[in-house]
Amino acid sequence: AQTVTQSQPEMSVQEAETVTLSCTYDTSENNYYLFWYKQPPSRQMILVIRQEAYKQQNAMENRFSVNFQKAAKSFSLKISDSQLGDTAMYFCAFMIKGGSEKLVFGKGTKLTVNP
Amino acid sequence: EPEVTQTPSHQVTQMGQEVILRCVPISNHLYFYWYRQILGQKVEFLVSFYNNEISEKSEIFDDQFSVERPDGSNFTLKIRSTKLEDSAMYFCATSLWNEQFFGPGTRLTVL
Asked: Is A66 within 8 Å of chain B by CB?
């Protein structure tokens, strides 16, 4: 069974600073995807960034980037120039390619951006 | 931009009652999912649906749960006899290629 671990239940950062959220996963599969979802207080799940396991290049979306270390099964999210609107729960998620392609989520990290 | 919609946004029901949660997927999406999030906890997979049948279900998805796509547009989750522990946020998600788009969720409160 696949598991996703987020070891930081809560983190805080000052506005305009950079913060890194950690995620590790466990799988014997070789072909999969990894995602970071943001859940603001409205509880809507919003896709932040995705990474395909076969791509060595780390994904980037504006201020959001990942550090994907396949051998270490690590997938951290870096948020640069943090904004107050980044305050949310962040969930790391894993999906095996093929089959039902369900998402397996970690427990989340609550990020607070302070003014 | 197309989006997944869910109704109702909040449902309050008595224990033992049946509830139906509705989702309207993005029109060309082929894969449909239900997830559950108990307050303060992680999002958990319930069931996936493709080609008008369940492709995978979790241990949570017992005989009290069912899904269907009755009219080719709505995707529904039915809970036949609700329990207190069914109180949670229920998310519908749909996808075409690997990327799942989530609806805003239905908050279910069982009293």
From this structure: no
